[in-house]
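Weekly puzzle thread! Below is a chain. First person to post its structure in token form gets bragging rights.
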Amino acid sequence: MERRIIHIDMDAFYAQVEQRDNPSYRGKPVIVGGKSASRGVVATASYEARKFGVHSAMPTKQAYKLCPDGIYVRPRFDQYKAVSKQIMDIFLSYTEIVEPLSLDEAYLDITHLVSRDRSAQSVALDIQRDIFDATRLTSSSGVSYNKYLAKIASGMNKPAGTTVIHYDNVQDILFRLDIGDFPGVGRVTEEKMKSLDIHTGEDLYQWSEAALIEQFGKKGASLHQKARGIGTSELKVERVRKSIGKETTFNYDINEDEEILKVIEELCGKVSARLELQQFAGKVVTVKMKTADYVSHTRQMMTNNPVFTEDEIYRYAYSLYHELKDPDVPIRLIGVTVSQLSDRTYRNLTIYDFM
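Winning reply:
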């Protein structure tokens, strides 16, 4: 039977949790990621804030210029992780074939649930209903026969939408799709494509595979397939992760310890959230730094016990940062990684637990 894949994506997840937990925020522009006057980065903006042009990954300082009357809040990763676990439990109540991508999105293979009397779209709607009943949060879903099309579909009718891409409508949808909206097409690739007059999926469709490979290397073959709706339907359920890390590049060189450490703390929270999602802990913490002259430096430390909480990771990252940072040299990138991962189940076991 043809695979049926759902991509579920929570709507402005962090901001929506804040609006749920703080009734005075509802209907107002909420920006998660730092105080309004800081130099942080927007993690998530509510849909009310997006009307002002605010979006994720935007410097908070710029967001404040666009939306000075917005509500600026610091992330509460412990709360987001708790809600994410509720959502994951709902996914697993439908299917064991789940591929989490982050705290707020995942792929689900629901092929075995589809029958003559139950469509894939109805399953998606049931899951969205269950999520709302349990968390009071809305989500959007995309349904298709492969992962990449399901991801495109989930973003087409946000918020609280459901879209199905099937063989009868796939080419029409892809032809009209802006080239920057194709999963896997980053900013650099998008700019190059537009310089070659590739602006939509239809433009991409006109190119031969050989011509795309000549321009984009190995990625050219994938782009050729994507223009034709071809992609994998195999979910990565049991991925063996060697490390989990997050990094950010500043829009300008920065040298203030307080500001950099604030970003490091946010990165530790994001790494912790990914570790929580996959129930991992790690024995090595690494801090990566790139200076204004594009030279990279890294330093790592073995932990006494496997770590996974934000506070634990931050304690090591804080020390590593001060070992690495030259007070006279500004930096343009900072990153935090936890490696040598193991199942968290065994984190606190001692020799006596095995006797």
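Puzzle host: Confirmed. Bonus trivia for everyone else. Residues 345-355 have pLDDT under 50 and may be disordered.
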